[in-house]
Amino acid sequence: MSRNTAKPLKIKFKKNGKPYKGWFLAWSILSYLFTLILAIILTAVIVLSGSYANLITSFAGQTNSEITNPDSSATYFASDYSSDAERKEANREIGTDIMREGVTLLQNDDATLPLKSGARLSVFGQGSVDLIHGGGGAGSIDVTNADTLVDSLKEDGFSVNPTLTDFYETGAGKDYRRTLPGETGVGSFAVNEVPVSVYTDEVKNSFADYGDAAIVVIGRSGSESSDLPIGKLESGVEYLQLDPDELDMINMACENFDKVVVLLNTQNPVELGPLADTGVGAVAWVGAFGETGANAIGEILNGTINPSGHLVDTFAYDLDSAPSVINTGDYTIANSSVTSGTKYMVYAEGIYVGYRYYETRYEDAVLKQGNVGDFDYGKLVQYPFGYGLSYTDFSWSDFAMREAGDSYEFTTTVTNTGDVAGKDVVQLYMQSPYTDYDKANGIEKPAVELVGYAKTDLLDPGEKQTVTVTVDKESMKAYDADGEGTYIVDAGDYYFTAGTDAHNALNNVLAAKGKTTDDGMDADGNAALTSQVTIAERDATTYATAVATGAAIENQFDDVDIRTYDDSFTYLSRSDWTGTWPTTYADGSWTAPDEFVDALEIDTTPGSDATSVTTEGTEGPSKTVEMIGKDYDDEGWMQLVERMSVADIDSLVRNGGYTTNAIESIALPGTIDKDGPAGISSTLVGGASGTGFPPEVVIAATWNDELAERFGNAIGEDSLALGVAGWYGPAANIHRSPYGGRAFEYFSEDPMLSGQLTAKIIATSQDKGVIPFLKHYVVNDQETNRMGGAMFANEQSVRDIYLKPFEMAIRDADCMGLMTSMNRIGARWSGGHKGLMTNVTRGEWGFKGVAITDQTSFPNFGYSDLREGLAAGTDLWLNSSSTLWKLSDAEMTPAVQADFQRAAKNVVYAIANSNAMNTMGADSGVKHITPIWQKWLWGIEAVVGLVIIGLLFLTTRGVIRRHRWRKWRKAGSPPSNEMSNPLPLQGGVQ
């Protein structure tokens, strides 16, 4: 057969036994489709790897810059350890120590605890093998190397029922595990305890062999982006109530064991009333364990460690009795269509958060004032704020007060009157007078408020220690928004008292007023533990100027008060409890005034009136290293910034997501920045993790400043070892509601306890060169609608409750960094509120550092506007996109550039005083480099590109040749230049 008359090779693809003629069409379509998909993926990869290169670099644990000519002698911050192994072991021990002192004993009937040495235990609850080590989201930790409860108990001499543990790990109990939403809010809350009906006879029979005691683990946790649910779950009870299956399990334990101990592996208060009907002997709140906290539990159960923790929240029989719960949840602005501006929240309870509500209404009930109504403290509060038991007893004596300049010093002698060694906590509370002036001007006063505390050393039986608590006179001030428009000190009697908890303290004050149980008190107080200070005249001048800066203090948050838009609104007041009791504002759907809806729109008006700025200047220092240790007000900082080009400043300020960019022109090294509050973590953005510690709520329960300092130092050590200069922590929002989803990240319902511990942590972490970004600034006390939600609160509560921990950290520890919140305060995003970011933070408190936004890497954070934030005083955008927030040349006016330069100064100042400067000597510089992942990606992109080209070529050539063969067959003669087999694999064509 001649070449020109040959038929195409037949390779017959068949379908149902017959040749399939459409295979080539299908193959061509699929080839083009596959090519298109590859092209789309390649384009997306190129775009994303370009736009989010810094984030990917951080995730890969790499860098995009390096120090040139490093100077090994230039060590501005050094480790205390000689090796990584030594550091890691020391940090793990700190985590265990935090748990040792944070565990809070709530009940110990008939000396259930401690257990005898070598006791044989049965450990109940699916949570016993699925411990809560931390929370979800930014506060999560790497638990790869976390210690287990069962192993801890064994190491401390206990024998643990293996049959029961295996039941939970590999038996029928393995199918039951709690669930909760992830960091994006997707998912649901469920307890999912193992029903009693699932326990096999083999498991039940094992109880007898391990019957010295039952340890029951109850777990609850939360996560970023989701608050804990308030309503009933499918189980028929609320999430913070004991689930029916849990109660059945507890009752089963009580029926089979003489000693039953409940461990509350929870991060929020839980309603524990039903335990009274079960026969449980001991209850201890343990919080979350971190990596190593479980190691402390065996020591506490066997008495090696005497628990000394105290509650940082009120445990109510009915958590819904807190007035904040009435306005907690999802509420809508009905007439707003502003992007991320359709939700709101009103803090209608004012200052009456946590114990400030329960204790104040209790006092008014005893004093028969304030229209208390139907209120029974004993039926509402199970364990008051500050409560905690010990295996030993303490007595307090010789309480005394001494005036010492701008403060008062209080001393108390603590004696261990029991049989074992232990630590005690002296809590110092103050009661301010509640005057007619206060009532007329809307100033609220709690019956008691914590103003100081001290934890004793470990005291042996019979040993005593005199502890001193110093209280600044400034603690006596209260904010008067409607009257003087500044801080005042009221005229009248101020009571200071030492108490074992908030309720005990209040009873002491009532005793000093001559009240007893005959007047309705639930216990007699001790007047000997109380001192009194009388102020003759109301003082509206002493604290009308800022102690830190001398600046005049005046209202800054009128626009955050709902009364600006609704003058009929009344906050909860102790002058009329029943008459001012909160309701859900506008029934949850508010038709807001037009002026408020209009105010929700972004304000891009430049904050500066500059008409020209200097860039790429030549004056002053040329390298950042020259400014190390220089005063914040030194002109050299701005001269250094003026050497930067507009592109440099934009790169530094606008792209601060988990890194800051190196700036070659001023030899500023780049930084790596990471979450989270419980330890430098890789869980969100990759790279290496440091130690995962018990979270802030457990640190707070220690009431131990020294432990807080050790924790801060440990963060600093991990910072040095991991090369992570910026730490997105600690977190100091308030436990406003028992249902806060990130309560574990925050310390307490009390601002003073939160602030003092925060300041201790920040001081020691900064001693190691950390830039701590204290968060979330401010009024970010719930997760629901935290992105853009408009939060309303009156100025007194904003200043005296929610800003207090941040103020203490800045004034007492010179905190170097802040992270703004995602929510609005009033109509304005917090980072765009000049009253907050500049007037108060810098003007009143003297903040010298860098303020970063919360996450702004994606378009749905579009209300965190760059120009508005810069004008207000925010400095750095937690933005990992190289394109997002990019301003055009026309938008980059001199006024905006001036704001950029001010922000850049603060960023440079913070970095210059951080451990990122280690090895930066006088001759050192920085240069940008291509990270390894990007080089690999370029190679992959080249290969994929060639594959795309090849597929397109082969498929297109096949289509063309097939088309030409069809023309030949139709014409009856082949083209002279064609092969007889145009497509070697075109079988089935007849």
Describe the structure.
The chain has 990 residues and is α/β, with parallel strands linked by helices. The chain has 4 domains: 1-64 and 929-990, no CATH class; 104-308, Rossmann fold; 350-564, Immunoglobulins (Immunoglobulin-like), CATH 2.60.40.10; 618-783 and 794-927, TIM Barrel (Alpha-Beta Barrel), CATH 3.20.20. It is built from 24 helices and 34 strands. Helix 3 (84-102) packs across helix 16 (696-702) and helix 3 (84-102) packs antiparallel against helix 17 (705-722). The longest helix is centred in the last third of the chain and has 40 residues, at 932-971. The two termini are 18 Å apart. This is Beta-glucosidase. The chain crosses the membrane at residues 21-48, 936-960. Keywords: Hydrolase, Membrane, Transmembrane, Transmembrane helix.
Euclidean distance between termini CA atoms: 18 Å
Gyration radius from CA atoms, angstroms? 33 Å
Shape: globular
Structural class: alpha/beta
User: What is CATH's topology name of the largest domain?
Assistant: TIM Barrel
The level of helicity is 25-40%
Q: Indicate the low-confidence ranges by residue numbers.
A: 1-13, 978-990
Strand portion: 15-25%
CATH H-level superfamily of the largest domain: Glycoside hydrolase, family 3, N-terminal domain
Number of strands: 34
Summed over residues and divided by their number, the pLDDT gives a mean of 93
Q: What is the second-level CATH architecture of the largest domain?
A: Alpha-Beta Barrel
Number of domains: 4
Classified by CATH, the class of the largest domain is: Alpha Beta
